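Onboarding guide, step 5: your first structure request.
Type a short instruction followed by the sequence, for example:

Predict the 3D structure of this protein.
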Amino acid sequence: MDRVMMFLFPMICFLGLFLLGKCYEKFFIMKKCKEKIRSIAWVNRNKVKAYLIAMPLFVISGPAIEELIFRAPLLIFFDEISTNAWWAIIFSGAIFALLHYFNNKVSFSDLVMRQNDDNVQSDNMLNEIKRVGNEMSRWDFFGRKVFPVVVAFSLGVLIAYLGIAYQSLWLCLLVHGAWNLIMPTVLPILLLIVWIVALVPCALVVRVARFFKKRIFRKKKYRFFEMTI
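The system replies with structure tokens like these:
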């Protein structure tokens, strides 16, 4: 009970931030900006404005409720890093990552690229996200689903570790919010790095296999000529 009281104030604040975010979404975004933020063309022309409109939700409100659900219990039960704490961190990170599997697999940048190539059927973002998602290949689907899960698991483990080590829910919220703030820029770079790391070894293996295949073929061909002579 003492540890619950210790973190009661930040937990109440986090719940308040989440409720404020829902009110902001319902009474401001959905009433005044609903049609704009659902328009691919408008968001493409007003990227900064659209980003600022949505920022309170994915930088403050969303992380607040996620930290309240996933990290607050860990801080209540563990006052230091231990073996049991690590098991709890890994389990919490796995659940946290699994929930991110169900996020949209189509990003706004995908829709913008398709619009610039005249490859969209409507200006409605929700309809296009659903359509493009259904048209994705298995490899695209796999990469856009599995990679965010791996990133979310790593992030969840890091935040939980920092929270327990420093006994601070506010630090958890700060790290989570900062990640969501820079994620639109960092995530494409991480995806590029992953593809490079995955493709370069594969390309090297193929080159080496072709090299040895040619050597073996030449030796067999040379032996065949020797036998005929």
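Each response can be followed by summary notes, for example: The two ends are 93 Å apart (CA to CA).
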